[in-house]
Design a protein that fits this description.
mainly alpha; about 0% strand; disordered N terminus
């Protein structure tokens, strides 16, 4: 049963990542017992990369900008994982964009903060709805294209 639960959590997480977010990736599966949740989360966490439509090069430029601004996104590798999103959440919070607790999870608060940031910097007029749709991803890519890598 434990192996089946791990497999279901892994598949559900992969589907959630492919859909553009991991905040609700496990919602369709019955929650395992608390001890199993810790084990499954620890095994799945390193795979949680959410680039929100950015190419590897664009994501690396975003990581480099966060680093230059004094936030630690981890190694600039073009893979926006937990460390990168924690840095982005701290950055957004310092700007007053209300990303919530810096936990590295790309949930609705983080996406809304990103949307506010993009509206502020690109005048995109994105709906601040916490949904990382096509317009949000395109605007994030446009913003990343404006960055010059300093790594």
């Amino acid at each position: 049963m434990r192996a089946l639960t791990k497999a279901l959590v892994g598949v559900t997480t992969a589907v959630g990542v492919a859909a553009g977010g991991v905040a609700h990736a496990g919602a369709a599966v019955a929650a395992p017992a608390p001890t199993q949740q810790r084990t499954a989360s620890a095994e799945v966490a390193p795979l949680a990369v959410v680039n929100l439509g950015l190419s590897t090069a664009q994501a690396k430029d975003w990581q480099c900008q966060l680093r230059v601004l004094g936030y630690n996104p981890g190694t600039p590798d073009g893979r926006l994982g937990t460390s990168s999103w924690k840095a982005a959440q701290r950055f957004f919070n310092d700007l007053g964009l209300e990303a919530g607790t810096p936990d590295g999870v790309v949930g609705a608060n983080t996406v809304m903060a990103l949307q506010r940031f993009l509206n502020m910097n690109l005048k995109e007029n994105l709906a601040v709805d916490g949904v990382p749709g096509a317009r949000t991803k395109a605007a994030f890519a446009e913003y990343a294209n404006l960055l010059s890598s300093v790594c």
